Amino acid sequence: MRRIVIRVGTAVIAGAVLLAATACGRDEEALAREYANTATPEATAAATPAPSGTAPAGSAPPAAGPPASGPPAADSSAGEPPPAQPPTDESAAPSENGNGTGSDPSAQSRLDAALLTAAEMPPGAYEAVSNDRTELRQTARDTACQPLIDLLRPAQAAGAPTASAQASVTRGDPTPNGFTIVELFAFTDAGARNLFTQGRDALKSCASITSTDAEGETSTDAYAAIAHATLGDESLAVGMTPEAGGALGQIVVRIGSTVVVVSNADLSATTPTLPADDLVSRQIAKLTAAPRV
């Protein structure tokens, strides 16, 4: 049995088992939920239209999460000084997994407003997530290669983003066969620049990276730069071929202190294909036009 797992940014893309999907007892809807992390309470806070199957806010796991009252959550003694969004108070230690802090409400509002809507994304099952903090950290065996993984998965960067937003489209019905994902991450200016510089340098010597996720699963994946026109202040196009199969093409763009990651995953391909240029340009243009609060 061969299971394809492609991890992208804040999403965990768990592809269908090509040789024995039904033997695993996992239906397509379960796979899609696992991939999109739709159980997160942050999904209900997205400002962009998100015609997803996400449960109402009242179903959020923390007891203090559902009542979206004006005062800070009662169980959030470590909450941020300024008034925070209700989901922001839900996680007591987001930095342990490196999934961002949600500490900049104005940046969060800007990213939510700039995120591509279902009508602006390719056809497929659309999901939008705001300030997702569920991603499990992926750690490179060779520490010199960690910056590349962090660049492609900015939510786990050492200097955690202060806000994030993600839109994804699942292709294939009834069995998922690919995904397109757009992710936006707000950092400090220095944090965004350092993330990019260190990640680009690591790619030069990290054509193959053995890494372990938080669940203890280890894989050795191949990485390669792909020639592409420069976008934003700086950009990088990377192809990743997972050990388990499938292929992933990513374009990472820095626009000031914001990092944009656009990914195209094909669960049956052997060669990475980058996301469409017009999709990347559309997201960059919308982010650039979004007013700063």
Task: Using brief descriptors, characterize the structure shown.
nine-stranded antiparallel β-sheet, single chain, globular, alpha+beta, 293 residues, two-stranded antiparallel ribbon
Give your account of this protein's structure:
It contains 5 helices and 11 strands. The chain has a 9-stranded antiparallel sheet with strand order 3-5-6-11-10-9-8-7-4, with helices on both faces. Helix 2 crosses helix 5 (277-289) and helix 3 (146-152) crosses helix 4 (189-203). A hairpin with a 6-residue loop joins strand 5 (163-171) and strand 6 (178-186). 46% of the residues are buried. It is globular and about 40 Å long. Residues 9-100 have low confidence and may be disordered. 18% of the residues lie in helices and 26% in strands. By secondary structure, it is of the alpha+beta class.
Tally of contiguous helical segments: 5
DSSP E strands, number: 11
**Proportion of residues in β-strands:** 25-35%
What pattern of helices and strands is seen along the backbone? Answer: EEHHEEHEEHEEEEEH
Helix content: 10-25%
Please state how the strands of the largest beta sheet are arranged side by side: 3-5-6-11-10-9-8-7-4
Specify the overall morphology: globular
User: Residue-averaged pLDDT, rounded?
Assistant: 75
